[in-house]
Each structure stands twice: as C-alpha cells, then as structure tokens.
Amino acid sequence: MEIFKSNKGGEKLRFSGYLYVLHTERREFIRWRCSMSSSFKCRGSLTTDLNKTVPNVTSQHNHPADEEYVKVAKTVCEMKQRAKESGSKPVQIFAEAVQTLENTTRARMPLEDSMKRTLRNQKSKNLPSMPATLQELVIEGDWTMSGGLNPKRFLLHDNGPNAEERMIIFATDSSLRFLSQSNEWYFDGNFSLAPPMFLQLYVIRIRLRGLLLTAAFSLLQKKSQTMYENMLRTLLQKCEERQLYHDPTIIHVDFEKAVIQSITAVFGEEVNVKGCFYHLAQSTYRKVQELGLVVMYREDKNFSKFCGMLDGLVFLPLEDVHRGINFLRKIVLAAAEDLITYFDGTYVSGTYRRIGNEQNGPLRMRNIAPMFPPPLWNVHDSTLEDGDRTNNQTEGWNNRFSNLVEENHPSVWKIIEKICLEVAADSTKVEQRNLGVQQKKKKRNVFELMQTRLKNLCQQYVDGEKNIEEFLSAISHNIRFRTQE
C-alpha cells in the first residue's frame, strides 16, 4: 500500500493494482473509493485506520486491476507537483520522470506534447498576495491587460477602493463590439468562483453568428438591483463611448427578481426577458422537498406525474396557461394542494390580500400579481421555433470554466488570469469562423431528442390533436425525470 499527494492537495492510495481517492473520514476509520467511480461507475472501496494503514477492502471493483495505470497516475501527479514547486522546464520534468519508468509504463504515459501543456498550466506564477480588504485592492499594470503576444486593454471599469459596493468589469473592445452585434444575451452569476470579499462572478454571454461567447465578466460585491443596474448602465456607457449601440431583443436569466427588474429599468419593456425552464422545474422540486414530499415524489407515480404536469404549463400557449392551472386545480391530489397553491401564487395567478377596514362590511380582496408572471417563463413559442428554453448553455460554460479555475473562491489575481485564457479561447473561435472553420457539432444527445418530442407535442396541441389533459400528461412523461436532479 502507498499513499501519495494529488496535484490538488488531496490524497490517493495505491493498493493491489487499484487506485483510490479519499472519500470520507469517520471517527474510527477512513473510507477510500475507486478513482474510476465516475468514469466506470465502479463502487470499489476500502477502509484504513486513522493512521492510514491496514487496508480493508469493503467493496469489489467492476474492472480488473491495472498496475500500469496506477504507476502512470502516480507519475503524472508527481510531475504536476514538481511543475508547481520548481523552476524546471516542462520538457525537463517530463524527460526525467519517464527516465525512471519501465517500458510497459512508458507506453501508457500521455503524449509528450499534451503532458508539457499540462505542466505549463501547473507552473506557479508568483501571483500577488490577496489584500486584506477591498479598500487595499488596486488593479493596475499587466493585470489590466488581456495578456498574450499582443495584450489589449481588458479592465473596462473599476468603481474604486472607496466604493460602497465594489464592481470591477472586464471586457475587451472586441467583446464590446460583439455585444453590440448580438440580439440574444445570457446572464448568469457564479458564487463559488467569486474571489474572497466579492459575492459573485457575473457573466454576460451572447449568441453571435452561431457562436456562444462571453462578452463581459464582472466581479460584484453584492446582488442588489442597484448593483445590477450600475453594471448594465456602465457597460452601455462604455459602449457608447466607442460608438457602439445595443439593441438586445431576448435576455435569458435565472429567476432572480433584482436582475429582471434591473433589465427593465435599463432597457425598457421592449426587451423579452426569459426565465430558465430548468430553474423553474428546480424551484418546483425544492418546494416538494420543503413540503416533505420527496418520498411520495419518488414512489407515487400519480404524484410525480402531477408535478410534471404542473411544470408542463410552461409549454402551453401563453393564452391557455390559466386554463391549464384551473384544470390542474380540478384534478389536484390532496397531497399536492400546498404545492399548486405555491406555484399558482408565484408563477400564474398571484395571491390575494384583504383590503378595507370595515368590521362588518363585505369582504374585499385585492389581487397581487405573481412574482414571476407567465410571459417570463412560457416557452411554447420558443419550443416550436427551436429556441432556447433554458440558460443551460451558460450553466455548461460555468462547469467548464470552473474546471479551468480548479478551485472555489480563487484569488482575484487567479480569476483575472483564467478570464484572460477564456478570452483568448473565444478569440480563437472567432478567428477560426472568419476563416470558414466550422465548430464541431456534438452528437445528437438525449436533450435534443427530448426537444424533438416536446416540439411535436406543442404542434399537436396547436393542431387540436390533444386537449389540455392529454397534452400535460404527455409533457409530464417527458420532463418529470429531469426535475429531481
């Protein structure tokens, strides 16, 4: 048995031709699981005592032992660690590492060019120390530039160390130009990637001539409507200074009221603000959890079907949404009364409050509009037109960018460094397209197949082939399994 450090600071355990990663530490033992638990769905595991000795296999693997794979993994970890800690060049680190390996292990090593790129990314960069307060944070010199062979101005705006709500925006002149040319924008905030003392990294992504690009990156100290308005107005002002004028027609957002209100305040009512269907479905499921109905959702098919029909209202034509909620109220299960009341009050009809002070007078009620009315989240037309129903392409970008950053709450210097890499990647996509290179399309996946089915169902409803009950039942069958993820 051998234990060694991973390049991310964790620990790996080598035993009997298998590689394990530390999973959990308990009071009396430590549990390790197979390093292929994700890729191979392997449930192999073992435990050690707290001194990390005396291995005890607790679950068998679903794949054979592979001693060469384990040796390669250990060697790669050692190379990455050396790249971080030493000034040696990647070519030297690679050559010295493989020199000590047997031929059978060398044959399994990553290709040299690929490994050298990895090592270059691992090398330490003498980043400045993170200031103790935002008042001490000053971004200047090379940190205001995009880096690379021809560095350009990258820091667009910093409201300064004395601002009550610090806001730092990064965008190149090229990305501002792309922003002005796109009529479909995607907003998203990431809290885990925010540096210490900032609340979120907020990005504005755009769709432009078949490409998805990130036009602006903002480090925000708060998530208030004022903060979002300042961010948007600053972007527009900086663009106007460059004689760039924006006219977005669709802006995709999550269900954050402050963001939605800031868009309306800055762009007016003409912009079509679209909430993300995925987040609406997640909101429904969170309410299921809050009401203590998770077990029923998983075990009672009628209840889970009803939840799917509730979410399925988003696919009805906008003018039929109220008919849909009224139909669901007629067939609602007793266990779902609180759920449909929440959904109707938040997303469809709104709520009611009593008005008037007459003690013995007639009961008078006033309707309070829903927090997120149907036009915000209805996706009937976009489904028929093969448009975006979700903000998931931004969520996918978040996952990819998180892998690039490799840690939660990185220093402000590291996040600037990684943002510059992302800008370079986007610039590459643009230049390739300008030369006629087409971005490789991913293979047709389960989401595209679902899109085809949902589009067919929407068309069948429009054509009168399905009534509301049949339509919502069919929609539920297609989407209900996604809402519990």
TrEMBL record:
Domain MULE transposase: 204-282
Species of origin: Aquatica leii
Protein origin, superkingdom: Eukaryota
Keyword list, A-Z: Metal-binding, Zinc, Zinc-finger
Gene3D superfamilies membership: 2.20.25.240
Record has RNA-binding as a keyword: no
Protein name: MULE transposase domain-containing protein
Pfam families (alphabetical): FLYWCH (PF04500), MULE (PF10551)
Occurrences of domain FLYWCH-type (ranges): 5-63
GO function term, MF aspect, one: zinc ion binding
PANTHER family: MULE TRANSPOSASE DOMAIN-CONTAINING PROTEIN, PUTATIVE-RELATED
Family matches, as InterPro entries: MULE_transposase_dom, Znf_FLYWCH
